[in-house]
Amino acid sequence: MIVLSGMRPTGKLHIGHLVGVLENWKHLQDKYRCYFFIADFHALTENPKNAFEIVQNTLEVVKDWISVGIDYKKSVIFVQSKVMEHAQLHLILSMLVSLNRLFRNPTYKEKVEELARRGIESKLVLNVDENRIEESINSTLDFIFKTIEIENDKSKSREQIYRKLKSDIMELLRTTLDSSIIIEQFLPNAEISYGFLGYPVLQSADILIYRANFVPIGQDQIPHLELARELARRFNSLYSEVFPIPEPILTEFPKVLGIDGRKMSKSYNNAIYISDSSNTVKEKIRKYFTDPNKIRKNDPGRPDICPIFYLHRVFNKEEKEEIYIDCSKGKLGCVDCKMKLFKKLDSYLEPIRQRREEVSSKEIFDILNDGFIEAQKRAQQTLELAYKAMKFQ
């Protein structure tokens, strides 16, 4: 059984990646044949200039993978763009999906909503005269009713039907128009590219090119996997059975909060990185937001809403119950609580940092090259099966 998962090369990884993804990968590699890849093509979808940072960022990401225990002897680790069969299958799959389906994809819709929240949208003026549309509807309805024999004593019923039908048709037209222009409404200023729109098709190709059986995702990401499942079924139905239908391995990806209380993210500059030094980790933990109602040491705290206590639950399981009680009763101050966390987290990260220092760039390139050879072999077999099914060979 094959598991497929990947990450975009965004640079050094933080402890949110560690507890949310990498710990899960470590367990999966002991049970399945895992393909873990650097999704460098995907890194270009929002900004093509990311290409200039990909090589260095790839080194940083893979160093983090290796340092936390992703074992290249158990798993295939490689770079997406090196295996050109990804792009070839992407092209084939793009013939099997409509534009409307892509515009309904959660990835696209979420991006549009994000851009709208930022105020990045164009003011599109429709050259549509609603009065003329209504006149057309009235004429159509008049014609319909002229062809139907309606008694004079039923004129009121006729009027009611007329209004209802007109209202329904107008609403249908408005809905249709709205759905047809949403693409243009956000494209001009948002600069959403063809590559971004086709992102989920390439994502499907990433999965299907290895005939993956499982993809580890969270519950909220199931709609993102559905397109790959649809395309696998469509190809199999149209040609012949080549692709297994990939199933999700449902995984709980915890939302690790950063220094400022928001989700931990490089873009928010609020992250503790796996590679951070001991002093850096200590300083970042000192700055962490805590319960705003706990101003003094003796004030009762609310650990359930505190980002520091969440990290205790992950990295300090031995003391978490005692800390919960003492914080709630006002027996434990925030400074002491943070230092307890620092000691546990620093102890957890120290062997990872040491291993990371030992991994050279040459070793990373060798791992990626070996992984490329293994991944390409599987991808070529899949593409040959696909071409044979399509009578290309």
Total strand segments: 5
Identify the CATH architecture of the largest domain.
3-Layer(aba) Sandwich
Biggest β-sheet: count, sense, barrel?
A: 3 strands, parallel
Summed up, the helix count is 15
Question: How many structural domains?
Answer: 2
Structural class: mainly alpha
Helix content: 55-70%
Through-space gap between termini? 28 Å
Strand order of the largest sheet: 1-2-3
SSE arrangement, N to C = EHEHEHHHHHHHEHEHHHHH
Shape: flat
Name of the CATH homologous superfamily of the largest domain: HUPs
Averaged pLDDT: 86
Poorly predicted ranges (pLDDT <50, ≥5 residues)?
A: 120-128, 177-189
Overall radius of gyration: 28 Å
Q: Could you name the CATH class of the largest domain?
A: Alpha Beta
Describe the model.
The chain has 393 residues and is mainly α. The chain folds into 2 domains: 2-114 and 194-254 and 360-389, Rossmann fold, CATH 3.40.50; 266-358, Tyrosyl-Transfer RNA Synthetase, CATH 1.10.240.10. It is built from 15 helices and 5 strands. The strands form 2 sheets. A 3-stranded parallel sheet has the order 1-2-3. A two-stranded parallel sheet has the order 4-5. The chain starts with a strand and ends with a helix. The model is unreliable at 120-128 and 177-189 (pLDDT under 50).
